[in-house]
Amino acid sequence: MKHGKALLHTLRFFLGLDTAETQTTAAERVALSRHAQGAKRAAELGVFEAATTVLIAEAMAADGRLYGVDPFFAGRLGLRYGLWISRFGLWRSGLGHRVTLIRKLSFEAAAKVPNELDFIFVDGDHRYEAL
Asked: Which of 2, 19, 20, 22 is most buried as measured by Cβ atoms within 10 A of its Cβ?
């Protein structure tokens, strides 16, 4: 996103004029929802703006826990727009209490995520070494 557009998008998101951005297609989101259905413990590597995070949390069991791992890199002004949008979007969805956001790279976050998971969605650094 170009300089200045990220801030405008964030403000528009807070006002309900924009939706969280995602790089997934509608068909991929349907598949994500289907495969996460009823999961008790799940992880998403690469949260971005939490569009798929909300989708996965909605599909999980009511008592499920989702671990969203993303470093939420700062933009040119040092602001973490993706983190702001993610937190606000999770709050707005009413699912924030079921999601733990971990602000680290995936290899740094391993100790904070349970060893046993029902579902994992990798939407970040797709290299095997990064997992």
From this structure: 20
